[in-house]
Amino acid sequence: MPFSLTLSSVSLLANPTTHYLRTKNPPHSSSSSSCINIRCSIDNKPPPPRSSSTKPTSWVSPNWLTSLTKSITLAQNDDSNIPIANSKLDDVSELLGGALFLPLYRWMNEYGPIYRLAAGPRNFVVVSDPAVAKHVLRNYGSKYAKGLVAEVSEFLFGSGFAIAEGPLWTARRRAVVPSLHKTYLSVIVERVFCRCAERLVEKLRADAVTGAAVNMEEKFSQLTLDVIGMAVFNYNFDSLTADSPIIDAVYTALKEAELRSTDLLPYWKIEALCKVVPRQIKAERAVTLIRKTVEELIAKCKEIVEAEGERITEEEYVNDSDPSILRFLLASREEVSGAQLRDDLLSMLVAGHETTGSVLTWTAYLLSKSPSSLRNAQEEVDRVLQGRAPTVEDVKNLRFLTRCINESMRLYPHPPVLLRRAQVADVLPGNYKVNAGQDIMISVYNIHHSPQVWERAEDFVPERFDLEGPVPNETNTDFRFIPFSGGPRKCVGDQFALLEAIVALAIILQHLTFELIPDQNISMTTGATIHTANGLYMKVSQRQTASAVA
Ligand code: HEM
C-alpha cells in the first residue's frame, strides 16, 4: 500500500517538491537477456546528477534543529560500524522538503549500502543492501516493529491491521487474509477488474475521437478506486464518471501522515491545536469522510447478512450476489468490534488504491518510452486473448506484460522506503550494530536501483526477469526485488494487485494505443507512492488490429 507510505513507509517529506530526474534521460528498453540479471560485483558508477528542488518551508523542521539533533545523537561513542552520512544542511533540508528517496540514493553512492542519517528530529539507519533488508524484514515481531509508521498514521488507520502491532495485528491479519482466496480472485478478475477496465476503455475511446490529451495518472487513480470499492465493499464509487471526494480525502490523509513523520514538534498530539491549525482541520475532515463512508457501507451489508442469516459454509466461500471482502468477513461471524472492522477495511481501501494506480501510471509511461516493449506487449495480448476479455488462466500466459509490470515496480517501487524500529539491540549482517529504539529505513528504491545489485539498473528491461521462470518476488530474488516488502508484514494484496494491473493493461492495450504528449516534464514527487508532479498526459487512439476490434 502506498501509503504504504503510510503503511509501510512514510516518506519524509514536508512539502511536495518536484525532482526533474527522468525527463532528459528516460529509461529505455533494450537487449534481451533471459534470466534475472542480478549483479554482484561492485560498480563505481558516478552518482547521478543532483536533482533540482525548491526549498522546504515547514516551520516545524528548521535546518538548525536538524543540525542540533545530529550533533547530539550521533557524536558520542558510536561503535556501530555504520558510516555517518555527512549530509550538508542543504541536503537534509532537501530531504525534508522533497522526494526522500532521491537524496537517499545519492548518499548510497557516497557512503555505501548502509549509513546513518540525521533527518530533522530523527536519526535513521538507511539500508540499501538486500541481505540487511532481508534480516530486518524477516525479523519483524521478534526484533523489529513498524514503529514510526504506526505513530504518524494512527489518526487515519486507528487500530487497523495495516499498522497494528503484536497480538492484535496477528489476530486481524489472520481474520482478513482468508478472504483473498483463489476463488475470490478469479471471480473478482471477471466481475470487477475486467468490467472496470472496460469502462475506462469506453471513456478513453471518447478521448481518442476528440484527440484530447488525457491525464492517465488521474484515470488510473479513478480506475483503482472503483476496483477497490467493488472488491472490498461491493460499492461502486463510480469515480470514472463523477468526481469522488474519497480520492482527495485519501490523498490528504496520506500526505498528513508523511508530514507528521518529519514534524519536529508533534503538535498534532495536542487535541486543542488540531481544532485550529488549518492543516489538521483539513486532515480531520478527510479522515471523517473516509470513516463515515466505510461505516455506512458496513452497516448496509450487515443488515443484509443478518436478514439472510448468512454464514460461511466452505473455505473458499464467495457470495454470488456480493463477492466482496466485507461480505466474507461479516459472514465469517468473527467476533470483532465495529471500529476494528471499519479500520481493517479502511486499511484495505487505502492500501489497495493509490499503489496500484501508481504502478499502472509508471508502467504506461515506461511502455510509451519503449516502442519495442509496447509492441511486444500488444502482440502478446492479441495472441493470448484473441479479442476476449482476460481470465485468471489467461493472465498466466501474459508473461511479457507481467514482466513489464515487474520491471516498472523495480524502477518505481511504491512505497520507495519501508520503516522499521529495532525492539532490541541487534547486529545486522556485515557486523553493524543497532541499539534498541533505532529507526531503520529500508530504501527499496536504492536496492532496486543499485548497480551492485542489478545490471543496467537504470534501464527498463522487462526481459531481465526470465519469461519462462517464476514471477519475481522477494524469495526467489533473495530480497533484491521487494516491491511488496517481505517477511510477516508483506503486502496481503500482492496477488490481487498484480492481477488487477495485468488485467487493466491487457484490456487497454487490446483496444487502444497511447503516446506521450511531447514536451511535458514527467517529474517525480512522493505521496504515499511515487507520483508524477504534474500528471502523465497521453494521446490515446483506437487500435485497428483484427483481434483488437473482435
Ligand atoms: C501494486 C500495488 C501494491 C503495492 C506496491 C503494495 C505494497 C505494499 C507493501 C510494500 C506493503 C508492506 C509494507 C511494510 O512492509 O511495511 C504492503 C502492505 C499491505 N498491503 Fe499492499 N500493496 C499493493 C496493493 C495492495 C492491495 C490491492 C491491497 C488490498 C487488497 C493491499 C493491502 C495491504 C495491506 C492490508 C497491507 C498491510 C499488511 C500488514 O501490515 O500486515 N495492498 N503493501
UniProtKB/TrEMBL annotation:
Record-given protein name: Carotene epsilon-monooxygenase
Protein origin, superkingdom: Eukaryota
Essential cofactor(s): heme
Alphabetical keyword list: Heme, Iron, Metal-binding, Monooxygenase, Oxidoreductase
GO MF annotations in UniProt: metal ion binding; monooxygenase activity
Family the entry assigns: Belongs to the cytochrome P450 family.
Taxonomic lineage: Eukaryota, Viridiplantae, Streptophyta, Embryophyta, Tracheophyta
Species per Swiss-Prot/TrEMBL record: Cinchona calisaya
Residues the entry annotates as binding heme: C491
